[in-house]
Amino acid sequence: MQLCPCQVSPSLAFLSTPVAYSNCCQPYHDDLYEDGTDKNGGVKAESVERLMRTRYSAFVLAKADYIVKTTVLAQQALLDINDIKSWAKETDWAGLEIVRHTPKLGKRHAQVEFKAYYQTLEGTQAHHELSTFVKVINKTTDDKGERWYFLDPTVAIPVSQKQPCICGSGERFKRCCGVYL
């Protein structure tokens, strides 16, 4: 049985039963077509904390396609899938700790503060980050079109503060995702 990477954390020593990858993050990783749409009705993250866990597992398992597909659509073409895969494979991941989950910021945003642990020659290090996510609603379908996406602050987007937001909300960028990027 392959253990799910998202459950491995220095602070989760209390877990008495290992969580299998097949029962945790694998259904999320395996249930997207290349265009990011759901297969068979779809398995999509019901919260940003869940999405954060699936993204961490995707980094551990070097599933760069999933990382790209769970980033807001306007940023996806700006990501280098080969760089993501290379960095993921070169990192000796050691665990994930969710520090804080803020499930609602305004109408469509949420945040997860986390620590992703990795091993170096100096010992265990932590990448500590506050990540922001946006809920995008596909207006051409029913409520099944809602999906959380990661807003990547490292990706430069050529958009002015007064233009429509990159998430498709119809609001101005500065009043929507611009607050978090």
Q: Into which percent range does the helicity of residues fall?
A: 10-25%
Please summarize the sheet with the most strands: 4 strands, antiparallel
CATH fold annotation: Nuclear Transport Factor 2, Chain: A
- Percentage of residues in strands: 25-35%
Number of helices: 5
**Structural class by sheet pairing and helices:** alpha+beta
Average pLDDT metric: 86
Count of strand segments = 4
pLDDT < 50 stretches = none
The geometry reads as: globular
The CATH class: Alpha Beta
Strand order of the largest sheet: 1-2-3-4
Succession of helices and strands: HHHHHEEEE
Could you describe the 3D structure shown?
With 181 residues, the chain is an alpha+beta fold. It has one domain: Nuclear Transport Factor 2, Chain: A (Roll). Helix content is 21%, strand content 26%. The chain has helices spanning 26-30, 48-60, 64-69, 73-76, 81-90, and strands spanning 92-105, 109-120, 123-137, 146-151. Strands 1-2-3-4 form a 4-stranded antiparallel beta sheet, covered by helices on one side. The longest helix is centred in the first third of the chain and has 13 residues, at 48-60. The protein is globular and about 45 Å long. The N and C termini lie far apart (39 Å). The mean pLDDT is 86.
